[in-house]
Amino acid sequence: DTGVSQNPRHKITKRGQNVTFRCDPISEHNRLYWYRQTLGQGPEFLTYFQNEAQLEKSRLLSDRFSAERPKGSFSTLEIQRTEQGDSAMYLCASSPTGVEQQETQYFGPGTRLLVL
Amino acid sequence: AQSVAQPEDQVNVAEGNPLTVKCTYSVSGNPYLFWYVQYPNRGLQFLLKYITGDNLVKGSYGFEAEFNKSQTSFHLKKPSALVSDSALYFCAVKRTNAGKSTFGDGTTLTVKP
Q1: Distance CA B101, CA B82 (A)
Q2: Which of A22-26, A56-60, B77-81 has the lowest mean pLDDT?
């Protein structure tokens, strides 16, 4: 069990560019979550997958954001036409199967995005 | 809608004293409640959760939390604080069978020797 991994760890981009982040969950965890965290605030829910199905998506997520989990393993989060307000830490978490176990989320180290 | 309030941005305690980090929540239906800890330059780590059953739940590193339905609270406690407990603590809530968790804005705990 190597934990949740996220790549890249840091990304600097210019406004208007597209960026893509990858999350590899803990092996056999069927639930995967994306959050965004800005300084001084708690993680803000973006979206959630169970296996390859995207079951919930925050209304705060604009059309510029899209997430996929094509084979129910790793996931990607893409931001199109980045804006300075997108600068934040993007967190991925996964959780295992089981009625109670599935409620425990294991977080990755995050990808820090800076939009210039 | 669901929400979490952590009324204290900062809690300071002396090593060896008991500590409490407060959390109140709002959610429709029965809540699932969580505490996570974030150390500097490290990811969020799960501490403990309330799903059902005993109102007092025990978690990692000697922490515990008490679910109080009437006061809609889930305060984090530890009988004897350690300097190494200094970190940022987040409370979170979700509805049963939902994916979305809502986090508070965090409380910075500082334990002084």
Answers
A1: 29
A2: A56-60
Least confident of A5-14, A51-60, B69-78: A51-60
Residue B113 contacts A where some CB pair is shorter than 8 Å: no
pLDDT band with cut points at 50, 70 and 90 for residue A102: low
Check if A42 contacts B (Cβ < 8 Å).
Answer: yes
Size of interface A-B (CB pairs under 8 A): 55
In order of start, what are the domains of chain B with their CATH numbers? 2-112 (2.60.40.10)
CB contact under 8 A, B45 and A55: no
Separation of alpha carbons B36 and B63, rounded Å: 11
Is some CB atom of chain A closer than 8 A to the CB atom of B106?
Answer: yes
Task: Verify whether the Cβ–Cβ distance B99 to A31 is below 8 Å.
Answer: yes
- Residue showing tokens 């334990």: B111
Residue A85 contacts B where some CB pair is shorter than 8 Å:
no
Chain A residues near residue B40 by CB distance under 8 angstroms: none
β-pair type (A10-13, A111-115): parallel
What is the average per-residue pLDDT within A30-37?
Answer: 95
The verdict on whether omega for the bond into residue A8 sits within 30 degrees of 0, i.e. cis, is yes
Extract the tokens encoding A102: 């599935």
> Looking at residue A17, what is its pLDDT?
98
Residue B67 in this model has a pLDDT that exceeds 70: yes
In the structure encoding, which two tokens stand for residue A46, read together?
């973006």
